[in-house]
Amino acid sequence: MGVLSGLEGSLEKYIEGFFKDTFGGRVQPVEIAKRLAREMRNCRRVSINHIYVPNQYMVHLNPSEWEKISAFGTLLSEELQEYIRQKAKEKKYTLSGAPSVSFTQDESLDEGMIRLESGFSEVPSLEEPTALDRDIEHTQRFFPVKDIVLADAAPLVYGILEVDAGPDQGKTFPLGEITILIGRREGCQIILNDTSVSRRHARLELHRGRYTVQDLGSTNGTRVNGVKITTKVLEPGDVLTLGTTVCTFKVE
After folding, report:
1. Which of 58, 130, 136 is nearest to 100 (CA)?
2. pLDDT bracket for residue 145 (50, 70, 90)
């Protein structure tokens, strides 16, 4: 049974004990789980037959909180992903893909604060539109009035990947699309001639002027600056490693 599977039950006592001592920060896993459930509810999209909810979540924390969580961040991500599955099943929501929860640090946040970003992954096949694809294109998102915050439009960015090492060394790939698949198979927007790269290895998405990389369950994993990731918001100069291929992310 997952650590967060009984959020409203006796597990809270376990959380208050074990995680309070181990995690040591002001942000507790139970609070993160509750915020994920709220984000799921607030960002739902309804179609004729389904209610879709985000399956990708990025949790932004103060650097000191992030440092405390990094020691067991993978375990907590797995538990939160299972919690999302259970919550979606309970509410009869439809996830657009496998849940993904990752953590990043945000110096603009004070200790104890959490900021969430969520999104919908692509449908399983990019070659032929599926019923899920058509439904999502014609869905409507609910925006609670109390949560609306006006923000300036995100600046236009032009990202590129420069291959520094590997079979494709010297190549440069412009990132001009909203969603970009990286892998060995035909149909990917970026095709790498590296046998250690999976056929569908990773995905790049542009959202609000920022690129996010997500590993797609690849055999050898995806690393950013030497750290294995599930999902990560990229910064200019970040180094991506996919198999034996090493790339530098740049913004023009």
Report:
1. 58
2. very low
